[in-house]
Structure of L,D-transpeptidase family protein:
Amino acid sequence: MKQLAIVLAAGSLVLTTPVSASETNTENSESDVRSEFSVDASNLKRSYFFDGVEYDYSRAEVTLLGDISGGKNTLETYAARAEAAKQAEQGYRDMQERFGVHEIAPNKFKWNDEGAKGETRVVVSISRQLAFFYKGDTLVGAASVTTARDGKLTPQGIFPVWMKKDIHYSKAYDNTPMPYTQFLDEYGIALHAGPNPGYPASAGCIRLPKEFAKRIYAMNEIGTEVLIGA
């Protein structure tokens, strides 16, 4: 099994435009809205905010360790969610630099594996509906994705690929086919090929363009890290 660790190049998260991922609590009225958890994705520093207070986190807190069988060993802490948000923002910057684009149309992807070496990882941006595939520190591919629709949840944090299936049929959704499935947690959240309209529409899984799903399925191993950020 491959070593489960976040590989962060020095300065790899330095961005120019602040982007935040936050939750709000609307107990009374709009005037009472308060930000509970938020992260400045443009900041290299490993930190997040809770109720306006800044908290630092360490590399160890965003490193997957232990037995991943069964999909129970996931990191969905504030630290993990902050790290995923930072890497999602960096993925977007890397996409602009490597492919010269600011967006990707539904069911489309970009690919360039020239000079790419190292362990693979997948980074997902929920807000931008994009996925970024890396080998080492090199962005190899970027694709449009579809995450959870209203009333459903695509979890945020750091997840290991703990099981792969060439084709899986969803027991919860009328045996819907899910090609190139890579399961991320014990509840059935997975990366897989599927309808990709360009907006949130899934029951929680991350749907990918079929050819993109096929390529990363072939390259990823059990234990590959998937970071899902706001």
Q: What stands out?
A: Residues 1-33 have pLDDT under 50 and may be disordered. The longest strand covers residues 163-170. Helices lie at 78-99, 210-219.
